[in-house]
Amino acid sequence: MNRLYDKNCDVNNLSPLNLAFVGDTVFDLFVREKLVCEANRPVNKLHKSATKLVKASAQADAAMRITENLTEKELSVLKRGRNAHTNHKAKNADVEDYHYATGLEALFGYLYLSGEIERLRELFNLIIEKEKTDN
């Protein structure tokens, strides 16, 4: 098991919003670790850099960039998250970006709770590499 909490979790029966609840933090941790390991920076600069990568529009772009690299199951989880009814108004994001960001978070939550840490690394590295080539 490759999770912090050592109890079993039936990820296939969790709602996409529950998966996104966990995935939001997992994605944020990847971003924060990346930024801290790149260079020793003032915390306010770290926060500004992290915000650029975790905002809904950036996560939506990331979701669309990795779609072709997902397995059938991963794509299904992303779509379930994207299509989930959040009952939440997107703050500082358009509705489509917010939904795609929720899909990415659901995918990251699913993979994390499934113990698929290496796959999370692969997808995060793919997101970062594609971001570099797109800019």
What does this structure look like?
Helix content is 70%, strand content 0%. The protein is globular, with a radius of gyration of 14 Å. It has six helices and no strands. It has one domain: Orthogonal Bundle (Ribonuclease iii, N-terminal Endonuclease Domain, Chain A). The chain is mainly alpha-helical and 135 residues long. α1 packs across α2, α1 crosses α4 and α1 crosses α5. The mean pLDDT is 90.
Total count of helical runs of at least 4 residues: 6
Instruction: Please state roughly what percent of the residues sit in beta strands, choosing from under 5%, 5-15%, 15-25%, 25-35%, 35-45% or over 45%.
Output: under 5%
Annotation, overall tally of beta strands: 0
**What is the helix/strand order?**
HHHHHH
Name the poorly predicted regions.
none
What's the CATH topology label? Answer: Ribonuclease iii, N-terminal Endonuclease Domain, Chain A
Shape category: globular
CA-based gyration radius = 14 Å
State the end-to-end CA separation. Answer: 37 Å
Mean pLDDT: 90
Going by CATH, what is the homologous superfamily?
Ribonuclease III domain
Structural class: mainly alpha
Q: Assign a percent range to the helix content.
A: over 70%
- Number of domain units: 1
Largest sheet: none
CATH top level label: Mainly Alpha
Q: What is the CATH architecture annotation?
A: Orthogonal Bundle
Write the layout of secondary structure elements.
Layout: H1 16-38, H2 43-54, H3 56-66, H4 72-83, H5 95-113, H6 117-134
Helix pairs in contact: 1-2, 1-4, 1-5, 3-5, 3-6, 4-5
